[in-house]
Amino acid sequence: MKILRLSLSNRLAILYCLWMACNGAVLNAQTASFENAPIHYQSAEVDDAISRLNKRLGNGDADLQFDDKHGYLSSVLENLKVPVSSQGLVFSKTSLQIQRITPSRPRAIYFNDDVYIGWVQNGDVIEIAATDANQGPTFYTLRQRKSESPRFIRDQGQCIVCHASSRTQNVPGYLVRSVYPNRSGHPNYGSGTYTTNITSPFNERWGGWYVTGTHGKMRHMGNKTFRENERSSDLNDGANRTTLDGLVETKPYLSGHSDLVALMVLEHQTQMHNAITFANYETRQALHQSYSMNKLLERDPKHVSDVAKRRIDSAVERVLEHLLMCEEFRLADSVAGSSSFAEQFGSVGPRDSKQRSLRDLDLKTRLFRYPCSFLIYSESFIRLPKQVKEPIVERLNQILKGENESKAFSHLTPELRAEILEILQETHEDFRV
Question: How far apart are CA 4 and CA 9, in angstroms?
């Protein structure tokens, strides 16, 4: 059998993906369709941070430096402007190189607004995902061996077995998972798993992750392992740790932190990216199907069917719910990170004349001071098809002006709505007055 000739890491990864498929994460008919027109996910060219860096490497306009401790990691982060402070350490065996991941050797995750990077000690590759404005997330690997011409290799379908499911909103996407890991890092799947986002209860977050930072009386699942079928374990011993001393040796990593605030931002932006990608794909597919039917029925080529309109309207609502952080879990205590992440995160991005920014953090009752996602400035949002972007902008204007009293947006006080609108009107081209 061919599988017998695969490396151990690939065999373990395949077994993990088969388990995912048997538990409902297999691609359904709708998600499988993004391989066909009009999406052409695998074959369409992309213009993302990695494809651009590959071109710069080929032209001699950039280079990657290799070191014996981390391979190309530091150089990749520098070239992509990914902050070391974003580091999160995950020790559950839930990724490609699972044979190299244990509680004593966690996987490190780094990210900025558009790029996600995974590194493991003595790993065969660095794993990267980058967001293309039209195609959404694209997955790559970079071989961890010194080379005169290092290049990022685009994934040919293995990654989306797990990264295109209901957990990623049925499009190629990103996710943060919380599991009940045993002492070797294997998830106790019988105890259940969680896909975490901004709505997740605090006590369901970060199972299988190390977490540094303070969070008062709230408790999370991080910094500990669980016995088989254990769900109600005492979470106090993993709480409010500002260092990982005594839990794991962090000297092999670029940072000694797995910052709580960085993890919270990561949870929000992964699913925000997915909602934007869903709106992009759903609109393009709905219009493609509608236009195809026009030919068959000899209708006006530009006619948009009622079915297509409903699909686009549903995508609009999904983006708005993520954008305005509906049903966000309300913090019962203040939280604080342990690294410089919060400061660095807030230092980039546009500010209005009153020095307000959608990147301003609250960390007392919610994650952001102004609950409107900073990814509204992303290329993937800005370049959404006009048939879905224009109604999103129109609806958002109505909500922020108080013209929409939907219960879904009742968490936004009149003051907050006015402040968010003022920020957008000064800093975002689609809202300028």
Answer: 12
Same domain, 174 and 197: yes
Whole-model pTM: value is 0.92
Indicate the number of domains in the chain: 2
Residues 312-342 have pLDDT tens digits of 999 999 999 999 999 999 999 999 999 999 9
Q: Buried b / exposed e across 124-142, counting CB within 10 Å, b at 16+?
A: bbbbbbbbbbbbbbbbbbb
For residue 395, what are the domain limits? 269-431
Per-residue pLDDT of 243-265, as tens digits, reads 999 999 999 999 999 999 999 99
b/e string for 202-233 if b means 16 or more Cβ within 10 A? bebbbbbbbbbbbbeebbbbbbbbbeeeeeee
Number of Cβ within a 10 Å radius of residue 109: 22
Say whether both 232 and 282 belong to one domain.
Answer: no
**Of residues 87, 135, 76, 99, the one with CA closest to residue 13:** 99
Beta carbons within 8 Å of 369's beta carbon, 6+ residues apart: 356, 360, 361, 362
Residue 133 shares a structural domain with residue 76:
yes
Neighbours of 165 (CB within 10 A): 24
**Cα separations in angstroms, 251 against 83, 89, 228, 358, 407:** 18, 13, 31, 34, 49
Instruction: Give the model's confidence band at 206: pLDDT under 50 very low, under 70 low, under 90 confident, else very high.
Output: very high
260, 295, 329: which is the final residue of a domain?
A: 260
44, 111: one domain: yes
Half-sphere exposure of 128 toward its Cβ, with a 13 Å CA cutoff?
29
